[in-house]
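With this grant's support, we have paired protein sequences with backbone structure tokens. One protein thus recorded is set out beneath this paragraph:

_____
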Amino acid sequence: MVITKGRSLPIGSMVPFTQTDVAVNPGNSGGPLFNARGEVVGINSQIYTRTGGYQGLSFAIPMETVMWGRDQIVATGQASHARLGVALQSINQTFADSFQLDKPQGALVPSIEPSGPAEKAGLRVGDVIQRLGDKLVLDSGDLPSLLGQTLPGDRNQLGIWRQGKPMEIGVLLGGASDKAASVAQADPVLGKGRLGLALHPLSSDEQRNVGITGGLLVERVQQGPAALAGLQRGDVLLAINAAPVKDMAQLQAVLTGAKKSIALLFQRDSDQSFVLVRLS
């Protein structure tokens, strides 16, 4: 049996799943996962398979997580976990270069829930969360798992990276039942050439309609790196390399000084996400 611990999945990301190659079929969820010594090391949860049968990967809830939930239920009658109120993106090397990080590590914040724990603590869009308490956040999937083992109302310290400098922020964590936290993942495509965007500052009416302050509206996307990165007409450009975009002059100044790539924060409908744009 091959075991990999601490796996994060799109469904159930608050749980640090144990991945195995044990044969598990539909209907086995809730059954025990045994090790070679006959000890129960997890509770089978789900499988990833092409055929619908056992051939594939199986995932189990680790026993330490199960026992942690059991103790809560015995003590309070329910199991709960903490909520931060942010969307998250993974960081690759190009993102790391754009945000002046030594290595692609941490969870990038593209949007923050209004009036949520993160906003109240002073977290900003473009921050990179590197640590929760004394636990390192190596990737965006690590943070939900850590929050899943933390109680609502706990006070904790976030180690973050903001505009080229490390910082510490104290946060009072909320409850997951207050409002579901969203997780955003991105896999942008990069291109070459000029930026290729026709933009104009949002009017006051447009800002009210979109629900933001500032920003540049994408009027037209021409052939170029922005189009290859997935930007579309109607998107609103909010920040460049974590700095809020105020006007065209500021954007042009950043583009002039940029070397290989830039990280653009944009809003589409009500969703915000960072995308990498490779410059020539």
